[in-house]
Amino acid sequence: xxxxxxxxxxxxxxxxxxxxxxxxxxxxxxxxxxxxxxxxxxxxxxxxxxxxxxxxxxxxxxxxxxxxxxxxxxxxxxxxxxxxxxxxxxxxxxxxxxxxxxxxxxxxxxxxxxxxxxxx
Length: 120
Fold this sequence. Notes:
Blueprint: E1 2-7, E2 10-13, E3 18-26, E4 30-39, E5 46-51, E6 57-59, E7 67-72, E8 77-82, E9 91-100, E10 106-110, E11 114-119
C-alpha cells in the first residue's frame, strides 16, 4: 500500500505565508512527477504546481512568482511554499504523486487534502 500524508495547512492573513508538505510512504519503487492541486468550494480541482523527478517545475499562472514547489527525493516528500497569499488561494490542497510500485504497477496517488484559508 502507498500513502500520501499532507501537513501544513491552516488559517493565515492575506499577504502571509504557509508551507505544505506531503510525504509518500509504503511499497514504492520509484516516484515520478509529484504535484499539488486545489479545490475551492463550487469549483473544479485545478493544478497548482508540479515537479518531475529531475526537478523541472510547472506552475499555474495564478500562483507563478508566489508559490514554489520543491521535493526531497531521499524523503519521498514534496513541498509547496506559498507566499503573498490571497483570499482567492483559499481551498483544500491535495498532494498527487505518480508512483511505480515494486510489482511495476504505476498509478496516481492522492493525499487526503489539507485546508488553506486566507482571510482578507
